[in-house]
Structure formats: C-alpha cells, structure tokens
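If it is no trouble, can you show me the amino acids of a protein and the tokens describing how it folds?
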Amino acid sequence: MKRAMVGSGGVSDGYEVGSKRQRMMESNPYFAVGSSGPGGYQPYGYGSGLQPSGFPVVRLRGLPFNCTDIDIIKFFAGLDVVDVLLVNKSGRFTGEAFVVFASPMQADLALNRDRQNMGRRYVEVFRCKKQDYYNAVASEVNYEGIYDKVQPTSPPGQSWKSIDKEQLEYTEILRMRGLPFSVTKEQIVKFFGDFNVTKDKIHIACRADGKTTGEAYVEFASAGEA
C-alpha cells in the first residue's frame, strides 16, 4: 500500500510512470477522488446546458491508429495540454486517448473540438469520468509491468496492514494495493473506522471487463489523516 500523488494524468506510487504526469499529480487538486476542484469551479457554460465536470480531462475516440501524442497536442493547438494517455489493449492502440489539461476550463474549451478532423478521420471529444481515467492509468501501469503483479487472497484487515513507510508520499489521496478482488467499499470504510471516510470518497479500480484490479484510491480530509 503506497501513498498516491494526484494530478497530471496518472498516479505516482514511487515508480516512474512519467515525470510530467508525476509532477502534476503532486499539486493538482482536480484529481482528488470526489472533488470538483477548488471553490466549486463554475466556468461559463455552453448552449447545450451541460454542466462543467470540474475534472480537467477529456476522452477522445476515433483517432487514427498511427496517432501520436504530438498529433493530439497539435489537434488541441491553443490549449494547455499537460499530458496524453494513449489507450492500448494487449499492446495495440485502440484509437482512444485521455487528454489532461491545465484546468477544467481548458478541458471545457477542448469540447469545442468535437468531431473535427485529424487526417481523414473525425475525432470524438467528450467528457471523462474520473473512474474511467483512473482505470486506464491502472491498466497502463499493470500492462507495462512497472510494479509487481499481486495475487491477493487474504481477507481485509490482514494483508492491508503491510506498509512500507519509507516509500510513502504524503498527500490526501491514499493508494491501496494488494486488496482482495472481492473487496467492497463498505469493507474499506470499516478498515478506516477511526477516520471519517465515506463510500463516495473511495474508488475501486476495475478493468475494462468490470473485474477489480486489487487497487483502490481513498480520499481523506488532509494529508495528515492519510
């Protein structure tokens, strides 16, 4: 179990996932699970009546299969792109990507690029759920083998208590690894019984097929509590 850094397109748990992604996750509050950003961010809206999500990430679909992160940055010329996560399945690009911007307002402006062309293909740009983004990051890290795969079998309250304190990073977001695949939010709430943790502050990472990965993210009121 390691402390997660939240912010730039990914999760840093002491391993090198991407320096830009790592730096942003140390400081960007919009990546906090259950957060809508400082001050309840309320930018100007669009004629569609959609409410801004407060999460500075959009999802792209229909990208050319030879697309690179540079192509995506050019596609969003004029906007402040912080990070690009190309979605792969079994090592092959799926034509989807997640794009991290410097602020929710930038992400809202990016929605105006929906159905614009990249080469001969038009690209869909739409809002991104935090859960989908975290799942994509977890899948990327697992596939690349950046950390050891864990086959958790112990019940809650036993395997979770093995913590390497030297490797913890102090933020309000706690990343849990090695959880039983059958773990529930209720069990995690009970595990942190001494803290005011609620189910809406817990994110259990899942693969595309709906199966859990053995990881979860828990948001605390402060870094001190975490």
Remarks:
- The chain has two domains: 1-38+130-226, 56-127.
- The helical segments are 19-27, 69-75, 104-110, 130-144, 185-191.
- Residues 204 and 216 are 4 Å apart (CA to CA).
